[in-house]
Amino acid sequence: EVQLVESGGGLVQPGGSLRLSCAASGFMFRIVGMSWARQPPGKGLEWISGIKYDGSTLYAEDTKGRFTISRDNAKNTVYLQMNSLKPQDTGVYYCAIGVNADGARGQGTQVTVSS
């Protein structure tokens, strides 16, 4: 059974940082791309970043330079380091199978950026 479990969300002030983690199981993690997406309040799902099996990365324009995606194949875990957070980064963050977030997703973790 495919499982994706996100963690690391919370409340942070503008300009702050958070590191999200996604523990994966039930599939061959090391040979598939992974990604992060978010759903802001009242809006649809937005793709944020993807990482291919070989570690090459892709970013949405508004997260480039602020967010960093990485993976640890030994731990079956994908990470999202988020710096310089803005209020518009608020939302539920999901990890997903596939570099375009078009596969199975986890339950999500809430990120709130507010003073």
Provide the helix percentage.
under 10%
The class by helix and strand makeup works out as: mainly beta
Main sheet strand line-up: 2-10-9-4-5-6
Residues in β-strands, percent: over 45%
What general form does the structure show?
globular
* Helix-strand pattern: EEEEEEEEEE
How can the largest sheet be summarized? 6 strands, mixed
Number of helices: 0
Query: Are there runs of 5+ residues with pLDDT below 50, and where?
Result: none
Overall mean confidence score, pLDDT? 97
User: Rounded to an integer, what's the Rg over CA atoms?
Assistant: 13 Å
How many β-strands, per DSSP? Answer: 10
Straight-line N-to-C gap: 40 Å
- The oligomeric state is single chain
Summary, kept brief:
The chain has strands at residues 3-7, 10-12, 18-25, 34-39, 46-51, 57-59, 67-72, 77-82, 91-97, 109-113. It is mainly beta.
Task: Please tell me about this protein's structure.
There is one protein chain. The chain is mostly beta strands. The protein is about 0% helix and about 50% strand. Strand 4 and strand 5 (about 45-50) form a beta hairpin. About 35% of the residues are buried.
Offer a few descriptive terms.
globular, 6-stranded mixed sheet, 4-stranded antiparallel sheet, mainly beta, 0% helix, 115 residues
List the helices and strands and how they pair.
Layout: E1 3-7, E2 10-12, E3 18-25, E4 34-39, E5 46-51, E6 57-59, E7 67-72, E8 77-82, E9 91-97, E10 109-113
Parallel strand pairs: 2-10
Antiparallel strand pairs: 1-3, 3-8, 4-5, 4-9, 5-6, 7-8, 9-10
